[in-house]
């Protein structure tokens, strides 16, 4: 809502509700212009708290009737709440509250609550959308049993869905537009209102019956528009795999007779875990080899898994209040990450052992890369907050990478501290204690610790929980000293708060997985003083103090420390390793993550020298040789090679420069030059890589094939880049041919981006042809917009093109995917086009944020976050960016969503 002084909600102010709603009976007369909602609730006073009036949430509703036990009562409106004072003194025991209201789905451009998309009705209730459907105690600790009746025109809305089980359906008397029908659903599990969902549309389903270990039968359905059915196989396979995985890994079985996924084209987020009726952005459901890339396929698997896993971690046990969001999101991201790793084909290593270099390690590297590129900057910027925030204005602004990805790392650290089996025991105890409840992050951590008495987690639980309460990325500084006479190696470790304003922060519990690698490449046994000899070459040190020392004995020669293996804690490591050390790790580290990290560090050191110190940008032979040896390596996984040969992103380079002012154009130039040199110096190797990683036969999205395609496409991009520098036509010609002939979208888009990113002449005809081919495939057209908006800038042409694309007949701000495909791509995905010396990029950003805010504040607010880091920029960027943020902040009727973001940004 738009009010002048937005209210700040504080975690410490939590109080239990004054009333419980035990059950709800909802009837919907669905009409796009005016939907009638009849809401009958069984309510009772919460006798554990002092009597108070009943205050129901409601937003953008027309109230037509309020009855208590069938009698009308007086009520009033106060701060957007419906208040019934007379219920303050109601005797204990249930009473019936009936409310009738209408709402207008077709005008609901916020896509929160009940809205229309295409020709159907859909809902999105998390976090506070239910109050846009009817009056309610719209908070997650109020859990009710829902019975829902949908009534609608039969021809327009042949499919009527809600949570739980279908109990009745049939025809109704004709309406103005012809025959009508109804369906009645009942969900036996009490749930908070944010998990309510309904769908009424013209859809078809792919169906699959499965039998779980307990011998129960279940029906799985994936609902899509007619014509999309052939793109649902992968989503269905992913769903089946999710059901099987959760039972195998955590003994968590599907608890519903029917589990449905529905795809919708207009959706703010990726997907939503409504009980038994998950609603998904089409992007995370629809895939065919011709239209979806390997990345899209992997995205579907992980999002389907994520939402399915919420059925236990989120739905069966939910959050007491929204400050506990990471209870469900951090844990469920951890679970979907583990699922994707287990699905990648490589087996999980024993506790404490290093994984082999393969698809599993590749997934971990990708997860960490995202964490460091997005979460670390958030933790260093104006929107920094703990995994469990202390306050918010708009809860939608706290579905952040800190709550999600850092939250998942916190769960992962628990897993590391108690071991894989200990963690599974902890999960069982968590469900034993809290099934059916709305709980806090403390309850979760307590269960994991209690199931593992004697573990480092149990011993230091209170301190460990600082990960939930202290914001900022801790900095961990390591100094190693080898003493030849005593053959000892002493590792000194010091942790410090990462944020300058983090005064008074206490040390964290940091699980630090380490190994020592001999300069000959041998992994050395790790025997601490006072310990018996061991053959273990990896172990987890648990840091609890601000400073700690570990002395290893019987170390024959000076080792290279391999610290923070697998990225065992979300910290910024400063280990002082020099090039020679990093080259040893790149060649020999048995830990795949650190091996990759060594290459990234080698590249980063060179990039920073150029950007920060103005060093010449010529690449040295040892670096080139190291890259060549990875590319040509006989055993390494192609996907892993591709990751090693992908340079750190511009955003990540920028973060390494801070606190020095950031000049995005210098970063771009340095990175581009490094790419060009790698393209030239490894030309023959790229040619080999391209030829050697062709796949014959039908498309499958498995990790090995995807890895080969990724490496071949990377090679093609480098070859086109080099061709552009030399003015050659052969490789662009081959790329164009491949673009035309490609048997799958990964290769087609790979070839197209090779042309676009090297500014090849053939890029234009290819883009035109691509649009013609796919103009009816919305998700492909999203990629078409994004590709053009992320092309490397030359003379402002990409920026001009992006502005032109705003007026393209296919462009719309109303569809979130489409809006993101152009705007997010340009403003967040293309620093060289966005950060212009004349500030036009920032002005463009401000205009779009304001435009979007009037349509969809949640989406606008996510766009607004792009300017978070303006204060780190060098002039002339800084002044222009600040002016743009200030212009947005000056708008009088800004949403609370955007206001909260720009207010914080201006304070930085
Ligand atoms: N519960 C969220 C969806 C959501 C987020 C609803 C914010 C309302 C506001 C869902 O489980 C989720 O986390 N979805 C993610 C994808 C997931 C794989 C991390 C999303 O939509 O981005
Ligand atoms: Zn989630």
Task: Describe the model.
This protein is α+β, with helices and mostly antiparallel strands and 908 residues long. Helix content is 41%, strand content 21%. Strand 5 and strand 6 (71-72) form a beta hairpin. Helix 13 packs across helix 17 (703-726) and helix 20 (763-774) runs antiparallel to helix 21. Ligand BES binds at residues 126-127, 269-273, 302-303, 306-307, 310, 329, 333, 336, 399, 404.
Descriptors for this entry?
single chain; about 900 residues; five-stranded mixed beta sheet; 28 helices; binds ligand BES; binds zinc ion
Tell me what portion of residues adopts beta-strand conformation: 15-25%
The biggest beta sheet reads:
8 strands, mixed
Counting DSSP H or I runs of 4 or more residues, the number of helices is 28
Q: Quick one: overall form?
A: globular
Poorly predicted regions: none
**What's the count of strands?**
33
Backbone CA Rg:
28 Å
State the helical fraction: 40-55%
């Amino acid at each position: 809502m738009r009010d002048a002084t937005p209210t700040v909600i504080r975690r410490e102010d939590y109080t239990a509700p004054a009333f419980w709603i035990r059950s709800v009976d909802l009837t919907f007369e669905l009409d796009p212009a005016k939907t009638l909602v009849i809401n009958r609730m069984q309510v009772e006073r919460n006798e554990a708290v002092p009597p108070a009036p009943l205050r129901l949430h409601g937003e953008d509703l027309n109230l037509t009737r309020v009855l208590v036990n069938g009698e009308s009562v007086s009520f009033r409106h106060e701060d957007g709440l419906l208040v019934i004072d007379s219920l303050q003194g109601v005797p204990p025991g249930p009473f019936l509250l009936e409310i009738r209201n209408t709402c207008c789905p077709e005008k609901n451009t916020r896509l929160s609550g009940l809205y229309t998309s295409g020709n159907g009705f859909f809902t999105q209730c998390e976090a506070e959308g239910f109050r846009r459907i009817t009056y309610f105690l719209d908070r997650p600790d109020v859990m009710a049993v829902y019975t829902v009746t949908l009534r609608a025109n039969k021809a327009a809305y042949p499919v009527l869905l809600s949570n739980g089980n279908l109990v009745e359906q049939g025809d109704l008397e004709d309406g103005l537009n012809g025959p009508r029908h109804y369906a009645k659903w009942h969900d036996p599990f009490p749930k908070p209102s944010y998990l309510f969902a309904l769908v009424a549309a013209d859809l078809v389903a792919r169906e699959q019956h499965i039998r779980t270990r307990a011998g129960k039968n279940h029906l799985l359905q994936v609902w899509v528009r007619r014509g999309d059915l052939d793109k649902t196989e992968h989503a269905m396979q992913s769903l089946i795999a999710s059901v099987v995985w959760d039972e195998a890994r955590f003994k968590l079985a599907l608890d519903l007779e029917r589990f449905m996924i529905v795809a919708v084209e207009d959706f703010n987020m990726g997907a939503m875990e409504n009980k038994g009726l998950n609603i998904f952005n089409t992007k995370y459901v629809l895939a065919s080899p011709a239209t979806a890339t390997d990345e899209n396929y992997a995205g579907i698997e992980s999002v389907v898994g994520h939402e399915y896993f919420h059925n236990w971690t989120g739905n069966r046990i939910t959050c007491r209040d929204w400050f506990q969001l990471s209870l469900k999101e951090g844990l469920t991201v951890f679970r979907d990450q583990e699922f994707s790793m287990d699905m990648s084909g490589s087996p999980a290593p024993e506790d404490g052992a290093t994984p082999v270099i393969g698809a599993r390690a590749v997934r971990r590297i990708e997860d960490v890369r995202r964490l460091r590129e997005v979460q670390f900057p958030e933790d260093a910027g104006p929107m920094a907050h703990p995994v469990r925030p202390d306050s918010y204005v708009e809860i939608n602004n706290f579905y952040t990478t800190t709550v999600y990805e850092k939250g998942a790392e916190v769960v992962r650290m628990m897993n590391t501290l108690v071991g894989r089996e200990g963690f599974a025991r902890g999960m069982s105890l968590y469900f034993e204690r809290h099934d059916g409840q709305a709980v806090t992050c403390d309850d979760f951590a307590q269960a994991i610790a209690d199931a593992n008495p004697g573990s480092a987690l149990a011993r230091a639980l209170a301190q460990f929980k600082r990960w939930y309460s202290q914001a900022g990325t801790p900095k961990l500084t390591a100094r190693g000293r080898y003493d030849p006479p005593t053959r000892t190696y002493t590792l000194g470790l010091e942790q410090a708060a990462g944020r300058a304003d983090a005064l008074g922060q206490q040390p964290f519990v940091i699980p630090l997985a380490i190994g020592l690698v001999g300069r000959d490449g041998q992994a050395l046994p790790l025997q601490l003083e006072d310990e018996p000899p061991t053959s273990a070459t990896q172990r987890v040190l648990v840091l609890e103090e601000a400073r700690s020392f570990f002395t290893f004995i019987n170390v024959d020669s000076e080792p290279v420390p391999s610290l923070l293996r697998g990225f065992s804690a979300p910290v910024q490591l400063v280990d002082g390793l020099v090039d020679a050390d990093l080259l040893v790790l790149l060649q020999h580290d048995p830990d795949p993550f650190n091996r990759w990290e060594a290459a990234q560090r080698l590249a980063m050191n060179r990039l920073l020298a150029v950007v920060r110190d103005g060093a010449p940008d010529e690449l040295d032979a040892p670096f080139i040789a190291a890259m060549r040896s990875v590319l040509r390596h006989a055993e390494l996984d192609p996907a892993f090679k591709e990751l090693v040969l992908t340079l750190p992103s511009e955003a990540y380079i920028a973060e390494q420069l801070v606190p020095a002012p950031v000049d995005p154009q210098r970063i771009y130039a340095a990175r581009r030059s490094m790419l060009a040199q790698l393209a030239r110096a490894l030309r023959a190797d790229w040619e080999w890589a391209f030829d050697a990683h062709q796949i014959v036969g039908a498309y499958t999205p498995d990790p090995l094939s995807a890895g080969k395609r990724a490496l071949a496409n990377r090679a093609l991009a480098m070859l086109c880049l080099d061709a552009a520098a030399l003015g050659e036509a052969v490789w662009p010609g081959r790329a164009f041919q491949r673009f035309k002939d490609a048997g799958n979208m990964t290769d087609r888009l790979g070839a197209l981006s090779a042309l676009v990113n090297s500014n090849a002449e053939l890029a234009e005809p290819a883009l035109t042809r691509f649009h013609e081919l796919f103009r009816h495939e919305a998700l492909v057209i999203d990629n078409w917009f994004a590709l053009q908006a992320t092309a490397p800038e030359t003379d402002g042409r990409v920026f001009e093109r992006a502005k032109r694309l705003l007026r393209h007949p296919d462009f719309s701000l109303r569809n979130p995917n489409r809006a993101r495909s152009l705007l997010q791509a340009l403003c967040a995905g293309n620093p060289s086009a966005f950060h212009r010396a004349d500030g036009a990029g920032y002005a463009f950003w401000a205009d779009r944020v304001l435009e979007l805010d009037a349509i969809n504040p949640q989406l606008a607010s996510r766009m607004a976050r792009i300017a978070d880091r303006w204060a780190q920029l060098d002039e002339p960027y800084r002044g222009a960016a600040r002016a743009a943020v200030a212009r947005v902040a000056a708008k009088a009727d800004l949403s609370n969503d955007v206001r909260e973001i720009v207010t914080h940004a201006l304070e930085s």
